[in-house]
Structure formats: C-alpha cells, structure tokens
Amino acid sequence: MATAKVRRVIPGTPLFDGDAARKGYALNKMCYSFNSADNRAEFTRDEAAYCRKYGLDPQQLAAVEKRNVLDLIAAGGNAYYLAKFAGIFGLDMQDIGAQQTGMSKEAFKARLIEAGK
Q: In CATH, what is the architecture of 18-90?
C-alpha cells in the first residue's frame, strides 16, 4: 500500500528537498563547477554559452541573468552551491543572506551579531 507524500511547509522558507534537488540539478552542477578557476573564467567570458553547456532551463537562465538569490533558490538552487556562483562576483554568504531577507548587508550582519548575544 502506497503512502501519501507529506510535504513540510515552513512559511517564507523554501525547502531544499528531493524535488528541489531534481529541479535544480543542472544549476547546482554548474555552480559546483565554479570550484575551478578555469571554469569561472569560462563562465565570465560567455555566460550564455556556459549555461547552455549545463542545460539550464529558462527559469534558471533568467535567475542567473538577474543574479537574484531568491529566484535562484526557486529554480532549485542550493545555497551552498549558489555561494560558488556568488563568489564569482565577490559576494559571500552574508551578501546572500542579506538578499534573501531583503536587508542591506550591514543590517544583516548586525542582525547576526544580535542573534549571537
């Protein structure tokens, strides 16, 4: 007897589950490739060709073009792989967190410091 799939919902929080992993496979595979300096250089020379090489879908292509973390996550991106993408542009996890929360980086950093007290 098959059991119904229960999907956990946390308001305002996209979950990276099996469905998201399947959806974002090409995007995350591409981002993982950015561990290599040669691949980062190839991407910056011709982003569109590099994205085609990994078979990104239209939603993923648009998110990459806009550099929007929330759109990248909605397209199946995993924050750890997206950090590789953000690093190409000199961004770090605090930049990503700030974009996810709609805050400035300075406000996000202050929030982290306050939460740690």
A: Orthogonal Bundle (1.10)
Domain chopping of the chain, boundaries? 18-90
For the whole model, what pTM was predicted? 0.80
pLDDT of residue 3: 65
Q: What mean pLDDT do residues 72-83 have?
A: 91
CB 60 within 8 A of CB 52: no
Give the torsion sign (CA, 95, 53, 28, 81): negative
User: According to DSSP H, which parts of the chain are helical?
Assistant: 18-23, 25-33, 37-45, 47-54, 58-66, 69-74, 79-88, 93-101, 105-115
Quickly state the pLDDT bin for 44 (edges 50, 70, 90). Answer: very high
